[in-house]
Amino acid sequence: MISKKTLITRDNFDKLILPFYNPVSFIPVKGKGSRIWDQDGKEYIDFSGGIAVTSLGHCHSLLNKALKKQSKMLWHVSNFFTNEPTLKLAKKLTSFSFASKVFFANSGAEANEAAFKLARYYSCKRYNLKKNKIISFYNSFHGRTFFTVSVGGQSKYSDSFGPKPSGIIHASFNDINTVKNLINEHVCAIVVELIQGEGGIIPATKSFIKELRLLCNQHNIILIFDEIQTGIGRTGKLFSYEHYGVTPDILTLAKSLGGGFPISAMLATDEIASVIKVGIHGTTYGGNPLACAIAESVIDIVNTEKVLSGVEKKFKQIVFELNIINKHFNIFEEIRGRGLLIGIVLKSKYSYKIREILKFSFLEGVIFLTAGNNVIRLAPSLIISKIDIIEGMKRFHRALERCLF
Ligand SMILES: *Cc1c(COP(=O)(O)O)cnc(C)c1O
């Protein structure tokens, strides 16, 4: 028998796992709230939130309860059937949003894949086969299937895989004139992140989103909001579009929706839904009862005044602490983002240090992510405590001291 202790090492990752990733050297084994423990029992404060996924921290008691309850009822039946958790979750997502109907899948990329296919299908059926171009934005991220990664605006992720899907064009984010220049009768959809997440925590301006909506209305174009990173309370509203006073025709969700359990959703209006016929798209696991039961519990907890207004308070507290740190070190160019999706932009002369800053932060017991190439990203639990924020920032201060001096 292979002993567990010798098997679970970073070296064995290199031996056993295809090298798409380069994980950090410690291996988390336990989490509670915003704290994580590694194999050696060392404790960390988690500002990464599993990349904006563990929206209620680790092992939240009510999510555990929902998981346990559903696990004794029914795990999986496939879409040959419908099921109770699917319908209950869909009811909540539609009653709290612009949408009338929902499609469930398992990951962000799958929700976007469905959205892009549906946008083209709709335009093909409503207008003509030539109305099939999708406009997206440079620096955007929409997932890693070949269609979604090609729609994404970072060619480093889509190059070297052979011919790309066609009919995709890119405009400049927050620059409406570049969009206007690309518009013609062949455009069927515009897809946009309300905050470019992977691209470096860059919020869309209100006027940009409003103008996109107007353009879409004028030219019969479907507006898709990719809220996979910004949705489900992340910015202090259940959906980030609520900050903009604009609704999309299609919206995609994943990450925070499952609180750590894989699930995604595509929300759409009745008009978009009207062209759909049985069998034109599908997935085996979508609407899985276990996933939906957990997501319903996530929404019940997040969609409360207490949690949503808490997000704004925690944003202010974190920015306050970061400003104090920056008074000391003077290395941040800007702190940007909204709610608990925060980007610390490093001054250009320090950007080469970003990996080291993260490494020293791990050593001090605090976990951050990166976004773009010079942004430290924070996407913690929406209910991270004041104590954890203060302690985390203390550790960050110590990490910077070790890294910079
Ligand atoms: C993470 C992310 C995706 C992809 O989600 P996966 O679950 O990794 O497929 C798509 N769009 C945005 C905005 C994201 O942040």
TrEMBL record:
Query: What are the record's GO terms for cellular component?
Result: cytoplasm
Q: Which GO terms describe its molecular function?
A: identical protein binding; N2-acetyl-L-ornithine:2-oxoglutarate 5-aminotransferase activity; pyridoxal phosphate binding; succinyldiaminopimelate transaminase activity
Protein residues bound to N(2)-acetyl-L-ornithine:
R144, T283
To which protein family does this belong? Belongs to the class-III pyridoxal-phosphate-dependent aminotransferase family. ArgD subfamily.
Main enzyme class = transferase
EC numbers on record = 2.6.1.11, 2.6.1.17
Check the record and name the InterPro entries matching this protein: Ac/SucOrn_transaminase_bac, AcOrn/SuccOrn_fam, Aminotrans_3, Aminotrans_3_PPA_site, Class-III_PLP-dep_AT, PyrdxlP-dep_Trfase, PyrdxlP-dep_Trfase_major, PyrdxlP-dep_Trfase_small
What SUPFAM superfamilies does the record point to? PLP-dependent transferases
This protein's source sits in the domain of life called Bacteria
Q: Could you tell me what this protein does?
A: Involved in both the arginine and lysine biosynthetic pathways.
One GO BP on record is:
lysine biosynthetic process via diaminopimelate
Q: Name its co-factor(s).
A: pyridoxal 5'-phosphate
Q: Where in the cell is it found?
A: Cytoplasm
Key words of the record: Amino-acid biosynthesis, Aminotransferase, Arginine biosynthesis, Cytoplasm, Lysine biosynthesis, Pyridoxal phosphate, Transferase
The record, for Gene3D superfamilies, names: Aspartate Aminotransferase, domain 1, Type I PLP-dependent aspartate aminotransferase-like (Major domain)
Q: Where does pyridoxal 5'-phosphate bind?
A: G108, A109, F141, D226, E227, I228, Q229, T284
Kindly provide the name given to this protein in its UniProt entry. Acetylornithine/succinyldiaminopimelate aminotransferase
The pathway entry for this protein reads as:
Amino-acid biosynthesis; L-lysine biosynthesis via DAP pathway; LL-2,6-diaminopimelate from (S)-tetrahydrodipicolinate (succinylase route): step 2/3; Amino-acid biosynthesis; L-arginine biosynthesis; N(2)-acetyl-L-ornithine from L-glutamate: step 4/4
> How many cofactor units bind, and how?
Binds 1 pyridoxal phosphate per subunit.
